[in-house]
Task: inverse folding
């Protein structure tokens, strides 16, 4: 039986997954950040990405329900607070809906989940199910795409501000806030996985879980590209003009 990797070697394996497979390399992101997306494509991205954002706290709640260690639950609980916010204010979900309104969509329509691409729904639901059912080391390791997120958030903020009239510090608050939240989350999770993936099987499972998560992210963009860049939206998917924000009389 082979010996387990050292912490340094396992971390290098995890980081190599992002270097090869993270969705910052998808052509849709190059198109979005370079100002080449039409507003139809931007709106489609916001609608479909909403489904992923809305399921993140549900994923974390499912994961917490499996944690027997109360200290681990206490630490992980901040993720729910980051995304859901308080009863009346804050949270990543509300910040995403402000972005939806800024690009001309009705936030209530976006929050309803109507028009989400079938492939987006399938991929995101598979992620939630994975976290609910996989061994704990693998379930936590799947969130380590956060290792690679700050760089794409920085490029996104700069690109959207440069190329799109809807972009402002206020409308891009979701991404700015994740630059503050993600480093804390990933530092803890990476350390926990490195501490608890002690056998070769656990280490392989952690790496495979991160590969799976990159597949989840990539599949969403593949579906978005096929539907709205190439122009082949499937039955039931959002169509341009649906779910637009209602302007007040005399408004802009």
Result:
């Amino acid at each position: 039986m082979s010996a387990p990797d050292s912490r340094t070697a396992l971390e290098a394996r995890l980081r190599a997954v992002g270097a090869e497979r993270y969705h910052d390399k998808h052509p849709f992101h190059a198109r979005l950040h370079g100002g080449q997306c039409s507003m139809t494509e931007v709106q489609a991205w916001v609608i479909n990405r909403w489904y992923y954002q809305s399921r993140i706290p549900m994923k974390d709640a499912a994961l917490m329900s499996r944690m027997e260690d109360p200290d681990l639950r206490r630490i992980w609980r901040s993720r729910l607070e980051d995304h859901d916010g308080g009863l009346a204010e804050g949270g990543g979900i509300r910040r995403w809906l402000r972005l939806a309104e800024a690009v001309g969509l009705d936030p209530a329509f976006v929050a309803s989940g109507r028009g989400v691409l079938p492939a987006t729904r399938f991929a995101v639901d598979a992620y939630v199910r994975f976290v609910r059912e996989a061994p704990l080391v693998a379930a936590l390791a799947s969130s380590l795409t956060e290792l690679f997120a700050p760089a794409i958030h920085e490029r996104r903020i700069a690109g959207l501000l440069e190329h799109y009239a809807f972009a402002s510090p206020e409308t891009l608050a979701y991404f700015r806030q994740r630059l503050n939240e993600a480093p804390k989350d990933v530092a803890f999770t990476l350390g926990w996985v490195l501490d608890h993936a002690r056998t070769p099987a656990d280490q392989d499972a952690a790496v495979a879980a991160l590969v799976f998560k990159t597949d989840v992210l990539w599949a969403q963009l593949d579906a978005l590209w096929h539907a709205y860049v190439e122009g082949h939206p499937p039955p039931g998917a959002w169509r341009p003009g649906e779910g637009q924000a209602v302007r007040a009389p005399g408004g802009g």
Observations:
- DSSP finds eleven helices and no strands in the chain.
- The chain has one domain: 7-229.
